[in-house]
């Protein structure tokens, strides 16, 4: 046998780590490949979490019937950068729209005339913050009330006549 060199030793270590991971036993940290440790592996309950140290991409690697499969983890940073770009474009559009719009002069020294349509009316004290709406009675409601009052008035008159007869008969 020939003596082991450092490149052969690192290759053997990487192969051993792959064999351990593929055999179902997960090592705490897989040995890096020959290119300055591009991938960093960390065990998780579902399999292995793989970090690409060059691009920053994170993937989850799980074992299925056909072997190992790695899927990229959704990157929130990409979504945030997209939203920041959209908002910056909207701010620029609104700034341009403001710059192109009519200019407003400063504070006016004189009061607005009373006939000015832009002047808001003074709030009435009676209205205040709350507005209470009372529905008006219908014609049917008014007829019922009038019928009741007529009957009550007739009974009152009849009662007064009876009392007068009773009093005049005793005297």
Brief rundown of the structure:
The chain has 171 residues and is of the alpha+beta class. The chain is 43% helix and 15% strand.
Detailed description of the structure:
There is one protein chain. The chain has 171 residues and is of the alpha+beta class. Helices cover 43% and strands 15% of the residues. The protein is built from three helices and four strands, in the order H-E-E-E-E-H-H. A four-stranded antiparallel sheet has the order 1-2-3-4, with no helix packed on it. The longest helix is centred in the C-terminal third of the chain and has 32 residues, at 139-170. It is elongated. It starts with 5 loop residues before the first helix and ends with a helix.
């Amino acid at each position: 046998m020939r003596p082991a060199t450092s490149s052969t030793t690192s290759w053997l270590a990487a192969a051993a780590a792959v064999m351990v991971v593929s055999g179902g036993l997960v090592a705490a940290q897989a040995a890096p490949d020959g290119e300055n440790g591009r991938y960093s592996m960390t065990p998780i309950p579902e399999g292995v979490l793989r970090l690409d140290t060059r691009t920053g991409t994170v993937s989850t690697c799980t074992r299925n019937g056909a072997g190992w499969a790695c899927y990229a983890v959704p990157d929130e940073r990409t979504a945030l950068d997209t939203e920041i770009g959209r908002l910056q474009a909207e701010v620029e559009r609104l700034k341009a729209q403001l710059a192109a719009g009519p200019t407003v002069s400063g504070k006016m020294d004189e009061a607005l005339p009373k006939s000015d349509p832009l002047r808001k009316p003074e709030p009435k004290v009676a209205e205040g913050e709350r507005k209470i709406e009372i529905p008006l009675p219908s014609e049917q409601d008014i007829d019922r009330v009038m019928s009741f009052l007529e009957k009550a008035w007739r009974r009152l008159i009849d009662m007064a006549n009876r009392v007068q007869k009773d009093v005049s008969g005793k005297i």
